[in-house]
Amino acid sequence: MKKNIFILFLSSVFCVSLACRNNEEKPLTTTNSKPVYSYEEKLKREITEIRRFLGKSAKYNSDVAFFLDMRIESGKNRFFIYDLKHNKLINRGLVGHGSGSETGIPGKLQFSNVKNSNSSSLGKYAIGGSYSGRFGKAYKLYGLDKTNSNAFDRNVVLHKYADVPFEEQIKPICNSLGCPMVNEKFFEVIEKTIDASKKKIILVMYY
Fold first, then answer.
1. Which among 13, 40, 94, 176 has the fewest CB atoms less than 10 Å away?
2. How far apart are CA 186 and CA 160, in angstroms?
3. Which residues have a Cβ under 8 Å from the Cβ of 148 and sit 6 or more positions away?
């Protein structure tokens, strides 16, 4: 009888300790990882916002827009040319951001609208006329939001740069002084789109 009671006692202790151990191990098997970022979902939301904005004004091109997703690392395609009329992505390419936007933390950027900050500025831009500058043909940018209202005065423009690669790469690409700068070959695609437009095209930079 005593032997049976002792065996039952050991069994219960073993079960309790096993349950406790399993409870303690549960947090190790459950990961608290953040949701994976989806640039497609973000792009859809930005497209919806731009459609709403363009619906309020007839002064801008409502058939095409440029979207720059700064949450995507610079070595990956994050400059999107989108056909709003037919609801499809036309092209994509690399684009550099301002050196002042670097935080020292991989994948994390900061943004500024302040002169001489060398930072990129988030918000909507109207792409203005072209001119010949330090890097050849470039386009003036006019900030339409509080976050990028100083773009013109800061000489933030859309331009090409020889050191920006055409293909995606693992490493980050070179930085600008705040301008969105692209590869020379990709610039030709952008150039044709802008020059063929009778109205100003909207470029939106988001994070």
1. 40
2. 8
3. 113, 121, 122, 123, 124, 125, 156, 205
CA neighbor of 118 nearest in space, from 89, 150, 75: 150
pLDDT in tens, the chain (207 residues): 444 444 444 444 333 333 333 344 344 444 556 678 999 999 999 999 999 999 999 999 999 999 999 999 999 999 999 999 999 999 999 999 999 999 999 889 999 999 999 999 999 999 999 999 999 999 999 999 999 999 999 999 999 999 999 999 999 999 999 999 999 999 999 999 999 999 999 999 999
State the distance between the two ends of the chain, measured CA to CA, in whole angstroms. Answer: 72
Q: What is the dihedral of CA 151, 155, 156, 159, to 10 degrees?
A: 150
- Could you tell me the CA-to-CA distances from 40 to 89, 125, 126, 178 in Å, in that order? 11, 21, 23, 25
178-201 as b/e, with b when 16 or more CB fall inside 10 Å? bbbbbbeebbebbeebbeeeeebb
Q: State both tokens at 106.
A: 């991989």
The answer to whether the beta carbons of residues 181 and 68 sit under 8 Å apart is no
Q: Which residue type, as a one-letter code, is found at position 26? A: K
Q: Which residue has the tokens 């497609």?
A: 40
Residue 124: both structure tokens together: 């909507």
Tell me how far apart the alpha carbons of residues 177 and 180 are, in angstroms, rounded to a whole number: 9
Rounded to the nearest angstrom, the gap between the alpha carbon of residue 142 and the centroid of all alpha carbons in its chain is 20
